[in-house]
From TrEMBL:
GO function term, MF aspect, one: dipeptidyl-peptidase activity
GO BP term, pick one: proteolysis
PANTHER family: PERIPLASMIC PEPTIDASE SUBFAMILY S1B
Lineage per the UniProt record: Bacteria, Pseudomonadati, Bacteroidota, Flavobacteriia, Flavobacteriales
Protein name per the record: Dipeptidyl-peptidase
Keyword set includes Nucleotide-binding: no
Functional description taken from the UniProt entry: Catalyzes the removal of dipeptides from the N-terminus of oligopeptides.
Record-listed E.C. numbers: 3.4.14.-
Major enzyme class: hydrolase
Signal peptide bounds: 1-17
Amino acid sequence: MKLFKILLLFLTLQVSAQQGGMWIPSLLQGMNEADMQSLGSKLSAKDIYDVNHSSLKDAIGHFNGGCTSEVISKQGLLLTNHHCGYSQIQSHSSLENDYLKDGFWAKSFDEELPNNGLYVEFIVRIEDVTAQVLEGVTKDMTPREKQAKTDGNSNRIQAATKKEEWQNTKIKSFFKGNQYFLFVTERFNDIRLVGAPPTSIGKFGSDTDNWVWPRHTGDFSIFRIYADKNNRPAAYSKDNKPYKPKHFLPVSLDGISEGDFTLVFGFPGTTEEYLPAVAIQEITEQLNPSNIAIREAALKVIDAKMKTSDEIRIQYASKQARIANYWKKWIGENTGIKKSNAIAKKKAEEVTFTEALKAKNLEAEYGHILPELETQYAAFAPVDIKRNNFVEIFVRTNELMSMMFRLTQLEAAATKDEATFNKAKEAMQGRIKSTLKNFNTEVDQGVFEAIMPFYTKNVDTSIYNSTAFTNLDSALAVLEGTPTEVIEKLNTDAAYVYAKPFIEDFYTNIEPDFQDKNSAINALETEYMKALMEVVPNERYYPDANSTLRVTYGQVRGYEPRDAVYYNPVSYLDGVMEKYVPDDYEFDVPQKLQDLYTTKDYGRYADKNGKLPVCFLGTNHTTGGNSGSPAIDAEGNLVGLNFDRVWEGTMSDMNYDPEICRNIMVDVRYVLFIIDKYAGAERLIKEMKLVHPKK
């Protein structure tokens, strides 16, 4: 037992010493490459990112700007999460063809379904352009002057960048404006739905299991990229052909074991790892509780209504998932921050920083930063909370108020020329059609009544009885006519008359106050980041996530969420059946999956003990945007699909702790099992390159 404890301590120290971080793939040579190899990787930095030859990066696509996807065949077959493709699956669903409930599997290329507006973007190359972007920027510039200068420099750099005519460029800021990288990209716009399991598999556990381990969710969906005859990006056309990728990921049949190396490659959205303690305190003690309360009130209404009707269930499936996702994430984030004692640790780091300033005689240059941040966050918190409450209520959770918010922008466009107004009106008509396609007045009114008291005492539900904007025909009728006529009709609509004063106050008072205070804080935090890297140079700094391509490496590991509890790193189909509740929208199990379990008909996808793995844990540092990211083994093969984090570890956006932060991945063997044994989509299995790296 003593030997076991020593080994466990060694493993824990190894995890703590070498993991965490979202690294830029073009800069892996050196210490990152050595770290990966010490964790078991057999990949070189060039295997992962290479401009001149195909590499892993060429198989990793940004899925519709919010998730990650990976190419898994030489015919452009694309794998991502079920929840990433959820809105596309929903858009093709109806009461007659309920692909959410029953799943969808195209039996041929001709049956693959196009998706208007869906795109996948690949990175061609990454270049450090810091010196060029910051040329002419001086210390005495205001934040606005600095932004104008860097924007101008960035525009010139992009205009001068050598690229193919179908490629695009963008420049992104790193380390809070202290470093800049140019990305050359290729965007494919003909992306077709190929396959998706039923929600009872793809979303098994739903809200109850979201952000929680153990998970038993087959969170995957399959698309295909199509290109023109030259294999280049093109708008949808029946003449387009399956894309021939520069690289695709072979799929491992050998699975994972605890301690195996894992590399997660993708487009993480946003992290804030270098916030001062006062900022984390404001977020977890004031901002998160406020947002949690609003979303919880909305979800109670939506959840209850979804259980009463299949039509409402389909209409609100995607919206409910979107609202619930971060509601639960914020709760876990607060729990993790408290459990890891993150605020106290940040304060201790700030003491070390302050002592280092004294030791290096840099107090005059940087000593003002932390005291000023304390003062500014105290003034910032009230307006930050008020602004977030507005956004939650008028933009994110109530659809009638969201339409009113957009309609005020249409009224503003009417003060300009007619062409500007007509363009804005056309966009608004499209938005209204999209909103009212999946809209239920009773549900939305219930949400309105539940959440509006968080913002005002003036809660008038009677507006739902007299507004034109709960019906598509009457809503579009308001937008017919000249700009003057449209605005006159708009300003007699009950919902618009109710919402407009709140929205005007937001634009006139709340938003300007927020932007002024936030701009000053951002400038200080940029200076703080620069000071940290200068004053404490021996730390290893990785840039915050900003939806750019990143690598995070780790190992398959369980963890201890609390005293006397240890979570094993792999879940199995047995656990699905243990959770099974007949006819429950979260825990129902399709009859065919039950039959396959009963007969243990797992084919070649079971592990060596004859059990079917479903999900597994890793120490990879992930966040939103990593949904759909491939989990890649030591030799570059696909072993899993990232889709979540453990609840206690969601605080990794501000404080990565290797003791409790774990990402959750669906085992690719479960994906293959569902495609093959459950769906009978053997044509997709044949299309992949299945390998046995451990044999």
